């Protein structure tokens, strides 16, 4: 993670990066001055237990984190505000957020989201906090997201080349790149999860005296 922070560029998001369902969901935060308390590159050192736990049990942790984030924004609401990926990425054909039985069976829907759409699930929970507190993108966010996307695309291209050619060793190279991309994805997802978890705990400590006074 530290190496990626050094190698990947931190230039502002380009217009092309703000296009599409994933890009547009982050574009709205590009110019926000407020930031998370810790950056994604700081997360492994500042929240090591959460980072390691997220990498080891990435999908189950996302279920817990979504519930935690939703109930931070809407205290005591349970799963009543849950929809698939919180609607940030739109839908596909007949699969549309809010129309997938989330209200009647939120636990099953969240399990499917966490295990089948892990990347968007991680990002959606982070965006909940960004929306609530107007948190923008810091340099580490841009670095790591770019690096992860580039590695995934590179691994996909190598896999396609390996299937279309008969060069000796190309399958092994593609397999190594796929493993590397998966490891990086888990590391970066762990960083984002730990960053979000740290922010929730921090905000709850800040807001606790206010809530206590009001009650």
From TrEMBL:
Top-level lineage group: Eukaryota
Protein name (record): Uncharacterized protein
Species per Swiss-Prot/TrEMBL record: Craspedostauros australis
Lineage, highest ranks first: Eukaryota, Sar, Stramenopiles, Ochrophyta, Bacillariophyta
